[in-house]
Amino acid sequence: MFRHDAGREAGPPPVAYVLLFVICLLLGQWSTETFQAVIVWPANGVMLAALLQLRRRQAIAVLLACALLNLGSNVLRGDNPPFLWANVALNLGQVLVAGLLARRLGGAALDMRRPRRLFAFALLAAAPAVMLSTTVAVGLGTWVRGYTPVMAGFVWQHMFGMELLGLLIVTPTLLLLARIHRFSLDRAASTAGVAEAAALFLLLGAVTAWVFSQPAAMAFAVLPPLMLIAFRLSPPWTALALIVVTLISGIGTLTGHGPIMLAAVPDVAELASVPLRMRQMGAYYVFLLVTVLTALPLSTLMSQRSRLVERLQAKHAAAIEAQARAERSDAAKSRFLALMSHEMRTPLNGIAGYADLLSRRRDLSPEVMPQVEAISRSGEAMLMLVEDVLEFSRGGEEIASERLTVAELLHEAAAPARINAEAKGLPLYFDVEPAALGVFSGDRRRLRQVLHHLISNAVKFTDRGEVRVTAAHDGVNLTVVVSDTGCGIDPAFMPRLFDAFAQSDDSLRREHMGAGVGLPLALAQVRRMGGRIDVVSTPGAGSTFTFSIPLATMVEQAEPVPSDVERAMRVLIVDDHPVNREMMRLMLAAADCETVEATDGLEAVQRAREGDFDLILMDVRMPHLDGLAATERIRALAMPVSSAPILAVTADAMPEDAVRCRKAGMDGHLAKPITHVRLYAAIDQAMQAAATRMEQAA
User: Fold this and answer.
1) How is residue 3 annotated by DSSP?
2) Which listed residue, 29, 264, 355, 459, has the most CB atoms within 10 A of its CB?
3) Strand partners of residue 615
4) pTM
5) H and E: helices and strands count for the chain
6) Do 25 and 70 contact (CB within 8 A), yes or no?
């Protein structure tokens, strides 16, 4: 029944409620003596507001003080027992019942800003409490004074309307005013300024005074300005506006003015002793009830709508900010991945490149060659792991369209697995059907990753039997089947087979190592290329992975006829890292190429201007002038210098890096680390792209 002691103090102090109660008693006494009638009984509304708003001890003190004041008022008025004390008990009982019902059915907080709680207070708390107290009072009056049924009905109707309106007008007004700080924090609760609010109240007062001074005027003409206040101002101001309407209309009605006086009253003999004004009060109560039950709910509904709009705007702003943070985070992640890719590939380039150079020397002892091959395999494995993790982290980009052959791609993707198969003595067969032997256009990098992971997994989990890879093309789709006779897949693990970092055996004694990103990455790449992947496995008998992707056939152009006069190719090597320049010089020397070196973009532009180069190998990240800007400056030079093929050889290996290189004017992109095979293949592709560029320019 009482407010929790831990709640925030709000509203007027306890003495203010007592003073308001005294004012209500004085108004009732004045109305009775002047007009022999009381239209609205607001005193109980003040007590109920104190009960609901104040803490336990304060509320009890206020209720006791008000009860004593009520008793004193009855004594001064000359009431006789049992009405002397029954009036006090009924008023106090009405307040206690209404407060209990309001707490139980309207919520502990009793936030009148919410229309649902306002209706719950009116219909489930105030109306039942007033109905109960009125019924008891009329029953007591019938027993003591001998009311006839007609008179009892009239008294019941008058008391019910009088006291219910007091609760519905006064209690919500005081509760809303006590929580006015919540409306001040709600910027959208009131869209009007002080001047507009004052003008609206003046308009409401003028219209109400005019209506209740003209017997022919319509009482409900008060509603338009009242609705305007409900729309434009917050609920506390609407509640005050209702009090203004009640005061003005009540005075007008008591003085015999206003349209209520024209209400038809049946001529009942048993009510002949009741003044006509009192018998017409039913129409006035209907007017006030309609006004209260329209204006306050509408005002709270508009306030709630304003809060919801503001909350939606705040959530929208938060969503936009979250999206901006996500975009910044994604950009930061992309920069981080690009930087890590570059920084990890730079040392790997030295390891893999020099291991490749050592493996081609014939003056090494037989004992050294296995060690060199181990270094080379470790470097390749490290590069594969770096590429897989980076690829898995950055997600999908646009699908590239490059020239490729299935047989060559199978040979390249299976190279690490072939070494492991040979170490196990495991046969590794490749069957490429004739329709798959042509030249196709597709994403070479993604397809190589899929093939590499599927073949490597098949070899890893097969100790005896064989691994067979079959490739077929039906004119639209490429279908590759990788089957093995290994240990198979546990059916319990099958639902998690393509989950990131999932391991069928993650114990310390597991036989097969791995990071758990191979199959998830293979599945993601197949889906990005518009295909699907299926797996069939029998524990102890092996597994078969089948994937199919769209792969378009490419029409090959005729190769240019080589010149009869051959000379050594002149190549400009541009790299700020001396280890990388020396490694590329040694790789090109094996092909009898003449090389010139530059340490940054500025020197590269100067060298290109001075010499006639058949090819320029251009790093991207360099001091003074980067490779992209250097390429743009070279392309701006005069012919034939500006037409030289330029191949990017860089540790920036992201797909967007390759796009930037081509936009800058380069003819190809080779990601570090490099080997003889990869370098020569990239040079061939760059030379073909440069020839195509020159033909299109001509």
Assistant:
1) B
2) 459
3) 571
4) 0.51
5) 23, 13
6) yes
